[in-house]
């Protein structure tokens, strides 16, 4: 019998079909979006990205020299715009100094991950989203939806650290960036539509057959 990690994936894919992630047009947009999406909904990021696109500023070299006030104004819809503007500009400067995306694309995955994690404002989830969706590296992204789903089914003890949760998936799945890309997107959809923080919709959820276990305060 296939590992539960693969069974969950196949169940979600059969229920929802391919999700076509990441919702961005270029690796540059993925990277900018991964930073801007922290603590906000994607719709707000899309507005900020639209502002940058219209001014042809989805370009790390241009962003690294942009006036702070203008960058703040352009990304304002994504919230926390002062902090995010500082972080985005810093990231753009680092990428530009590394020779742009061409300078990073040949870096081994673990080294690239460490390089990203050293940048202010980039934690494991953002770094792994960039590795997976901008650089097509087989790195499994863990987020709050994934932790909630896993916790409610008793697949992972709560609380579980990022690395432990990532290993739970990675150790039982082929290291395939297409698979990881799709799997993360499917988990996000499940979390948004069914596995909500309160009153999860288990009866209609594709994962109902996997026997959820609830802690009383999550119902
Ligand atoms: S069956 Fe319930 S607990 Fe499991 S993922 Fe769906 S909504 Fe969440």
Notes on the protein architecture:
- This protein has 219 residues and is mostly helical.
- It has helices spanning 4-16, 27-36, 42-54, 60-64, 68-75, 81-97, 100-104, 109-117, 124-133, 144-153, 162-170, 177-193.
- α5 crosses α6.
- The radius of gyration is 18 Å and the shape is globular.
- Bound molecules: iron/sulfur cluster (SF4).
- Residues 149, 152-153, 190, 194-195, 200-202, 205, 207-208, 212 line the site of iron/sulfur cluster.
Short description:
The protein has two domains: 4-18 and 141-218, Orthogonal Bundle (Endonuclease Iii, domain 2); 27-133, Orthogonal Bundle (Endonuclease III, domain 1).
Question: What brief labels describe this structure?
Answer:
single chain, 219 residues, Endonuclease Iii, domain 2, mainly alpha, Endonuclease III, domain 1, binds iron/sulfur cluster, 12 helices
Top-tier CATH class of the largest domain: Mainly Alpha
- Rounded to the nearest angstrom, the distance between the terminal CA atoms is 31 Å
Question: Low-confidence spans: pLDDT under 50, at least 5 residues?
Answer: none
- Please provide the ordered H/E string of secondary-structure elements: HHHHHHHHHHHH
Task: Present the secondary structure layout.
Elements (H helix, E strand, L loop, with lengths): L3 H13 L10 H10 L5 H13 L5 H5 L3 H8 L5 H17 L2 H5 L4 H9 L6 H10 L10 H10 L8 H9 L6 H17 L26
Helix pairs in contact: 1-12, 2-3, 2-9, 5-6, 8-9, 10-12
The protein binds iron/sulfur cluster (SF4).
């Amino acid at each position: 019998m296939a590992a539960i990690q693969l069974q969950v994936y196949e169940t979600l894919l059969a229920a929802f079909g391919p999700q076509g992630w990441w919702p961005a047009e270029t690796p540059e947009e993925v990277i900018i979006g991964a930073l801007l999406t922290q603590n906000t909904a994607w719709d707000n990021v899309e507005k900020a990205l639209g502002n940058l696109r219209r001014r042809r500023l989805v370009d790390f070299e241009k962003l690294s020299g942009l006036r702070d006030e203008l960058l703040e104004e352009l990304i304002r819809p994504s919230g926390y715009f002062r902090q995010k503007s500082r972080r985005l500009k810093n990231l753009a400067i680092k990428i530009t100094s590394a020779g742009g995306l061409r300078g990073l694309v040949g870096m081994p995955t673990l080294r690239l991950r460490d390089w990203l994690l050293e940048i202010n404002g980039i934690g494991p989830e953002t770094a792994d989203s960039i590795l997976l969706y901008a650089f097509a590296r087989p790195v499994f992204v863990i987020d709050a939806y994934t932790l909630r789903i896993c916790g409610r089914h008793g697949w992972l003890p709560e609380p579980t650290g990022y690395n432990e949760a990532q290993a739970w998936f990675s150790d039982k799945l082929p290291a395939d960036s297409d698979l990881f890309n799709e799997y993360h997107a499917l988990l996000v959809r499940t979390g948004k539509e069914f596995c909500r923080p309160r009153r999860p919709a288990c009866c209609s959820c594709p994962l109902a057959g996997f026997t959820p276990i609830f802690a009383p305060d999550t119902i």
